[in-house]
Amino acid sequence: MSDQPSEASRPPEQSPQADPQQQPEPQPPAPTAAAAPDPSVKAAAPDQLVKDAAAADAPSRAGTPAAGAGNPWQYGAGAPGARNSTGDGVTARLRPPAPPLIRPAVLWTVLATAVLSALLLGDGLGVNLLIVAVLAALAAFFAARSAGRRLRPWTATWAVGGLALLAVPALRDAGWPTFLAVVSAFALGSLALHGSRSWLGVLIGSLGLFDSVVPGIIWGVRGIRARADGSRARWGAGLRTTAVAAVLLVVFGTLFASADAAFADLLGSLIPDVSLGDGPWRIFLFALGLAGALAAAYAAAAPVRWDGITVSPGKPRGRVEWALPLIVLNLLFAAFIALQLVVLLGGYEKVRAETGLDHAEYARQGFWQLLWATLLTLLVIALALRWAPRGGSRDRTLVRAVLGTLCVLTLVVVASALRRMDLYVDEYGLTRLRISVAAMELWLGVVLVLILAAGVFGARFLPRAIAVSAAAGVLVFGLLSPDGLIAEQNVQRFEARESAGIDIDYLKDLSADAVPALDRLPEPERSCALRIIQREVLHTDTPWYATSWGEARAKEILEKRPVQGDGRDCYRLGTDGFRDGYEPDDDGYDPY
């Protein structure tokens, strides 16, 4: 697999030097009955024919002109030969020739993926999702090898990153970072299969696996039919062998389980609990795993060339017309940042005297505005690059100077927004919303740094670098355990300043990842915060493959130190942790 479509996956093009009036070559005479074919000469394999056709077509593509030079931040080069001179539609330019027949190794790996999807994924998400994804990746690898695709560094980067993201469900119990990790893993897996590198290629390629679902199923059905027609005896022998092995395992496994309780417990923990009532759900998971694995294998064998979709650059503007609005915007940013430096250096007393706001209120008032200012700045940069002047070296220098200054000033705005969030969290505690928007603001700062680097070193890798930074951010966010960080910060704040209180009503709804931090609270705050989590962890029988490490650790802690009391003390605690009475209708809770 490579980040570029292989020669076998490129549609043939007519050479511009070919003579349209060329006469067809005379056909060789048909062999007579006496001239029998040589049995030592084997028929060419379908994939070999595809490779030969691609090799013969290589000279016609050698003269394809390279993409034109754009502004210093733009990278719009599509796939070579993206312009179709024959006038075919977009689909004809993007889709490669049909892949060779599906190989037995691919078929067996796809079937194993579907079976394990039905057996393992019905009880929740944990390490089971990683196991299924590894099998689907193997099916794609075998299909790519049979189609002649090679493994390239970017393909390996996307694949390893996608599998690493699936470690988040295996380690963390919280559902929201798990959802982000699974979606990001799907996007990276799709990029690994299609090998996109342009802006539109990376954006559409991250969802391109959906386009291979129906063709993949058709490809699999045709491959099974073609191979079943010539090997009915082998298929029958394989089915008989599987049936005999299954009967032997069931009979002797049942005898050994009834003879020894420890062996019975071992089998019970290893074998998924499948009942007739779960039949429709398991069938759906089997079909989902089968379709997903076939789609991945088909995309690996015949990737769609999403880089062939290009957008023409905007009309270049004059230097003054383009630069003047951006220079005015830079001056506005500079004035705002000057005030921020005064505040950060100790000017809060003056601001408080003029506005009447304390540190936390002042921080909360401006964070969302600064977040939107960062997002709008990225939009302004994208539009400015589209209409930037592209006349020569002086224009490139002007673009670098104006937009580079805007990126640097926006980085200071990002730092100011993060500082405001830090002040607000110190006053009121950390929540899921606060840690999420702070992480997003931090990632936007990374994007700005990447744009600055692209202005200096070139934008060849900018689309893929931004995609890698987003995936890395999701991975780090999940591995750091957001619910654990939220509980840890609130507990430390309560231990340092008990007068500040602690919001038990919020902490009790966190996941099992928060148990190690909440376990340090004094009673009755500890039992009130852990009562709901203990009910969910200890009273559910989740198999090992659907249990995260965070849930297993929480179960161990709560088995050693279960919660105390019957919950009446929790009603005597206010939502801030004080014994002031429980008033759910007038608690003044701010979800932000």
Please characterize this protein's 3D structure:
It is a single chain. The chain has 592 residues and is an all-alpha fold. The protein is built from 23 helices and no strands. It has helices at 46-61, 90-94, 104-120, 127-146, 153-165, 167-171, 175-194, 199-205, 213-230, 232-259, 261-270, 279-301, 319-355, 359-386, 393-428, 432-457, 462-479, 482-496, 504-507, 515-518, 525-538, 549-560, 568-571. α5 packs antiparallel against α7 (175-194). The protein is flat and about 80 Å long.
What layout of secondary structure does this protein have?
Blueprint (H helix, E strand, L loop, with lengths): L45 H16 L28 H5 L9 H17 L6 H20 L6 H13 L1 H5 L3 H20 L4 H7 L7 H18 L1 H28 L1 H10 L8 H23 L17 H37 L3 H28 L6 H36 L3 H26 L4 H18 L2 H15 L7 H4 L7 H4 L6 H14 L10 H12 L7 H4 L21
Helix pairs in contact: 3-4, 3-12, 4-12, 5-7, 5-17, 7-17, 9-12, 10-11, 13-15, 14-15, 14-16, 15-16, 16-17
- What is the count of DSSP helices, taking H or I runs of 4+ residues? 23
Measure the end-to-end span: 45 Å
Secondary-structure-derived class: mainly alpha
Strand and helix order: HHHHHHHHHHHHHHHHHHHHHHH
Oligomer: single chain
**Overall pLDDT, averaged?**
76
- Taking all Cα atoms into account, the compactness measure Rg is 31 Å
Spans with pLDDT under 50 lasting ≥5 residues? 2-88, 576-592
Largest sheet: none
Give the amount of beta strand, in percent.
under 5%
Helix proportion range: 55-70%
Shape: flat
Total strand count, please? 0
